[in-house]
Amino acid sequence: MSANTIASPRSGGIKYNRNKGSGSNFEMAAWLFMRLSGVVLVVLIFGHLFVNLMVGEGIHAIDFGFVAGKWASPFWQVWDLAMLWLAMLHGTNGVRTIINDYAERDGTRMTLKTVLYIASAVIIVLGTLVIFTFDPCPAGAVIDLPSFCPAP
Ligand code: HEM
């Protein structure tokens, strides 16, 4: 095999004993989740791109006020929340699979997955907080607020 080729997973004659006899259906559920979340993500992501980039003035309309307007609606809050959670869980589970396939040492695998889960949890929590605590007209702001905010 040339130096530029990544070996196929589990092609090195290594004996894998991971999750032996755990009797859990977790991997089956994870496999199914990737397919189902993938289908839902197609709708969420292309709907998001269409509304943000093509409807009306399209990309030229995107600014602070545009985001504020969208998040004033519970519909777009729930849409963006679903997109955030599904993309993060789907992406995290995909990278978990890649780590399991390619990181051969137990310690390396555990370390990489720990970093992955912490990064993922931070992004999910922060993103969720931003969607639900976003205030378009914060009191005492030092920037020019959008025209729809009450005069200070
Ligand atoms: C547009 C909608 C999407 C669809 C239809 C989709 C579909 C899929 C499917 C079916 C798999 C499983 C592949 C396999 O097991 O061999 C997969 C894997 C994966 N997806 Fe997605 N996905 C989408 C969006 C995303 C997004 C937004 C991310 C990143 C946040 C992402 C990251 C990944 C990763 C990292 C894997 C693992 C790749 C691998 O196992 O080699 N996907 N995707």
Could you walk me through the main structural features you see in this protein, from its secondary elements to its overall organization?
It is elongated and about 70 Å long. The protein has a domain of 106 residues: Fumarate reductase/succinate dehydrogenase, transmembrane subunit (3 helical TM bundles of succinate and fumarate reductases, Up-down Bundle), CATH 1.20.1300. The chain has four helices and no strands. It has 152 residues and is mostly helical. The N and C termini lie far apart (68 Å). The site of protoporphyrin IX containing FE (HEM) has 13 residues, from α1 and α3.
Task: Tag the structure with descriptive keywords.
single chain, 152 residues, mainly alpha, 3 helical TM bundles of succinate and fumarate reductases, 4 helices, elongated, binds protoporphyrin IX containing FE
List the helices and strands and how they pair.
Elements lengths: L25 H28 L10 H8 L2 H29 L3 H28 L19
Helix pairs in contact: 1-3, 3-4
